[in-house]
Give the backbone structure.
Amino acid sequence: QTHFIAVANQKGGVGKTTTVINLAASLAAQPRKVLLIDLDPQANATSGLGIEKKPGASVYPCLINGLSLKSKIRRTSVRNLDLLPSEMDLCGAEIELPQLENHLTRLRDLINPIRQSGRYDIILCDCPPSLGILTLNALVAADQVLVPSQCEYFALEGLTMLNRLIGQVRDGGANPSLTTLGIVMTMFNNSTRLSHQVVDEVRKHFGSQVFDAVIPRNTRLAEAPSHGKAAIVYDPNGAGTAAYSVLAEEVVGRLGLN
Amino acid sequence: QTHFIAVANQKGGVGKTTTVINLAASLAAQPRKVLLIDLDPQANATSGLGIEKKPGASVYPCLINGLSLKSKIRRTSVRNLDLLPSEMDLCGAEIELPQLENHLTRLRDLINPIRQSGRYDIILCDCPPSLGILTLNALVAADQVLVPSQCEYFALEGLTMLNRLIGQVRDGGANPSLTTLGIVMTMFNNSTRLSHQVVDEVRKHFGSQVFDAVIPRNTRLAEAPSHGKAAIVYDPNGAGTAAYSVLAEEVVGRLGLN
Ligand SMILES: Nc1ncnc2c1ncn2[C@@H]1O[C@H](COP(=O)(O)OP(=O)(O)OP(=O)(O)O)[C@@H](O)[C@H]1O
Ligand SMILES: Nc1ncnc2c1ncn2[C@@H]1O[C@H](COP(=O)(O)OP(=O)(O)OP(=O)(O)O)[C@@H](O)[C@H]1O
Ligand SMILES: [Mg+2]
Ligand SMILES: [Mg+2]
């Protein structure tokens, strides 16, 4: 069975891409077979893994014309981790997709053959910072949603909005089995009162949905993408890498994988 | 004459809202008469100024039905600073607006009467982290674009994409006089090599477009919104507040205001 996890939050800069790359790399090291889908036109997950952004190489032509995704899958430098890259064309999807038939289920239908092939244990999908058509496609295709959230005030405000949308996708029938896998607190700064206040507030509201693992603010995590590497490769003994390995263990536990 | 400045960057979490709130408050203190438009469905600028998010209170009904914006304008606790608030309904605009006539010029046409009234010296518009229909409306209505950018690798990548879009809006005829007012580097951390590298890289590529003023990473800037206050009120003598006052001086200089 393949688990499809959408990593989403419409609040910008909360650590979606950093979480997707480093969680994927940690899961691949367990080892699990992982596919990372970059559904953000910014293509940060693509460049963060050292893959060149090439026009035509993204899922865009598949979403619009129904072409198979298989030919777009790339190997990365991380063993057991493949990538469906993104590039600029994907920008066009936000305007063009809504005008097509079945515009909400296109990604789901494209992914189904890959799911059935059993080639991957886990699919992780990086979403753009919006609740537009690309994020909606990911929520309809996904089994679960993983929500990274910064330990800051503005990020706190956005969680209710996202939870409401997840409920609408589930209860509205577009994806009746969609659940929230959990909320992971990121960029935690132990020396600021704000970080502690926000984490307490999120745990108060969302209880056990919040992962125990908390990702610290750690410069090496921000440096790694400029070298095209996951932190597990760039800074194998760092605090950021360790936190993502702990998160990977917790994710596997919540998915019921051995 | 009223200057309309769109504060935009599709990269998430780069400090757009923090810049809009604190630049607006610094300009209002000069004093200038300032209108802040919150065009982001997350409504962070609205809550960051202590204004309640009420359904129906945003520009959304005006964009869709052509109602006058005048009735939506709210006073804030900052003298000389008014706000056009946002709320959840604005989410609907991303899907509904593209299906309407003149969907790119709706904000421009709504703003024109306010511009002509001469009531404000400067209009600042906070944009969501995407290049969707709301940001496009702001770019078509604006005279200039102010681009906040974090001192981090992923933010660097997004600048070229945004520059290309600004060029398309100008050269494609939607807004022939649109120019970039400047790029302001935010969340600069003096003790990391990454911050210095990114600032050097941006100055190398974009030269004099980059403001001299650099906004430091400063916790008080992140705390202020949870009190519904601009930093100039919450932390009047802080480094963040000082940096935004310097930026306000530079903005006024570039606009050619006395
Ligand atoms: N734990 C961390 N410690 C330090 N820096 C981090 C951490 N996590 C992410 N960053 C940095 O913070 C910035 C925002 O993170 P990232 O780009 O992953 O967020 P995002 O949610 O994917 O953004 P967007 O909304 O634009 O897609 C990046 O420059 C990233 O390198
Ligand atoms: N100079 C700064 N120092 C410290 N924290 C900052 C600074 N500027 C912004 N922040 C914090 O960083 C986070 C991101 O900033 P902000 O929300 O203003 O960015 P944004 O670009 O408007 O995000 P979005 O893309 O979601 O609209 C917020 O929690 C904010 O409080
Ligand atoms: Mg991202
Ligand atoms: Mg914002």
